[in-house]
Amino acid sequence: MTRLRKMQLMNDNFRTTLAMGAAVYMSRSFYDLPISLKREAFERIVHYRKFAKNGQHDAGLILLSNLAVRWRIEYRSLDFKGYSSDPGDPEQTVRVLIVDVVDR
C-alpha cells in the first residue's frame, strides 16, 4: 500500500467515525450556528467524497444553506503542542478536525 493510500484510509476512517484518539475544533462562527445546521454540516463531512485523486482526503468545502463551511484535518503531536513529525504513524499523531464558516 502506498503512503498516500494509507493516509487516505486513515483520514477517511477518522472523518467518518471521529475516532482514533482525535479531537474536533470549531471556529466561533461555526460554533454559533444553530444545532440543526451543525448537525447537517457534520453529516455532510462524514459522507464527503469530492476529493482530488492525488489528495490525502484531509480537507473539503461544503455548502450549507447560504453558508460555505470548510473543514480540514490537522496532524498534531500527542501533546498537542505542535505538529506530528510523521502523520502516517498513529502512535505519534492525533488527528484534529477543524471546522469553520468561510467569511462572506
SSE layout:
Blueprint: H1 3-17, E1 23-26, H2 28-31, H3 35-46, E2 59-64, E3 67-76, E4 94-101
Parallel strand pairs: 1-4
Antiparallel strand pairs: 2-3, 3-4
Short description:
The chain is of the alpha+beta class and 104 residues long. The chain has helices at 3-17, 28-31, 35-46; strands spanning 23-26, 59-64, 67-76, 94-101. It has a four-stranded mixed β-sheet.
| Uncertain regions spanning at least 5 consecutive residues | none
Distance between the termini: 41 Å
Q: Count the E strands.
A: 4
Q: Largest sheet at a glance?
A: 4 strands, mixed
Structural class: alpha+beta
- H/E element string? HEHHEEE
Strand content: 25-35%
What Rg, in angstroms, do the CA atoms define? 14 Å
- Helix coverage percent: 25-40%
Name the quaternary structure.
single chain
Spatial order of strands in the largest sheet: 1-4-3-2
- Domains (count): 1
Total helices: the number is: 3
What does this structure look like?
The chain has 104 residues and is of the alpha+beta class. It has one domain. 30% of the residues lie in helices and 27% in strands. The protein contains three helices and four strands; from the N terminus they run H-E-H-H-E-E-E. The chain has a four-stranded mixed β-sheet. The radius of gyration is 14 Å and the shape is globular. The termini are far apart.
Annotation keywords:
104 residues; alpha+beta; 4-stranded mixed sheet
